[in-house]
């Protein structure tokens, strides 16, 4: 069994956390993995808000996610927020970043830019928001795997009031809407009844279909 598979067997969605702080180096590695996640056309149409402040996490817990007991005792709360409206400026900024990073001319990227504009900006705002949210979930997956390799507990959550969370953080004013959240911290072996439970997964032959 590879080391990665051992780490993934170790991880689970912790139901309670113990308040211990994740070391900065481990946090940085998890955030770097999220940054390196793939996205369609490379646009990364989302932002990730990193909430360390305890008072703010408590406010989010009480007002937007009262069922998520991990939030108050987590080390950090990550909020994956998709761009509410994709614009030509987003595409221009991305193309400029590609040009400067790879040291190529803007002219050489014109066809690429036109393809993005024609394929994405021609769609409705709601279709593009749903697309952006799916890209954010890919980044979430990278964060979960990275956290496991660092032996940091990470619990993904959809059970929150997105509109209220957006209001608390002023996300709509930033052109963002929250889609999923992730707590980082360490499992509480005493308070979490699943801390020592066996992982339950469907059998390989039931999950995978070879054709």
TrEMBL record:
<keyword id="KW-0521">NADP</keyword>
<feature type="domain" description="Nitroreductase">
    <location>
        <begin position="10"/>
        <end position="186"/>
    </location>
</feature>
<dbReference type="InterPro" id="IPR033878">
    <property type="entry name" value="NfsB-like"/>
</dbReference>
<keyword id="KW-0285">Flavoprotein</keyword>
<dbReference type="Pfam" id="PF00881">
    <property type="entry name" value="Nitroreductase"/>
</dbReference>
<keyword id="KW-0560">Oxidoreductase</keyword>
<protein>
    <submittedName>
        <fullName>Nitroreductase</fullName>
    </submittedName>
</protein>
<comment type="similarity">
    <text>Belongs to the nitroreductase family.</text>
</comment>
<dbReference type="InterPro" id="IPR029479">
    <property type="entry name" value="Nitroreductase"/>
</dbReference>
<keyword id="KW-0288">FMN</keyword>
<dbReference type="InterPro" id="IPR000415">
    <property type="entry name" value="Nitroreductase-like"/>
</dbReference>
């Amino acid at each position: 069994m590879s080391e990665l598979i051992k780490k993934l067997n170790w991880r689970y969605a912790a139901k309670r956390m113990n308040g211990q702080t994740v070391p900065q180096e481990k946090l940085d590695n998890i955030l770097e993995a999220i940054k390196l996640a793939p996205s369609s056309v490379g646009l990364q149409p989302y932002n990730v808000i990193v909430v360390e402040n305890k008072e703010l996490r408590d406010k989010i817990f009480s007002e937007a996610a009262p069922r998520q007991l991990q939030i108050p005792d987590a080390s950090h709360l990550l909020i994956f927020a998709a761009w509410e409206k994709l614009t030509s400026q987003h595409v221009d900024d991305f193309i400029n970043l590609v040009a400067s990073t790879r040291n190529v001319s803007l002219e050489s990227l014109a066809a690429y830019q036109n393809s993005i504009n024609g394929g994405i900006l021609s769609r409705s705002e709601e279709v593009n928001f749903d697309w952006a949210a799916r890209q954010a979930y890919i980044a979430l997956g990278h964060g979960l795997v990275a956290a496991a390799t660092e032996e940091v507990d990470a619990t993904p959550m959809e059970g929150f009031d997105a509109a209220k969370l957006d209001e608390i953080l002023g996300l709509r004013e930033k052109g963002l809407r929250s889609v999923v959240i992730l707590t980082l911290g360490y499992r509480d072996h005493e308070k979490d009844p699943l801390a020592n439970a066996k992982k339950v997964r469907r059998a390989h032959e039931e999950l995978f279909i070879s054709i």
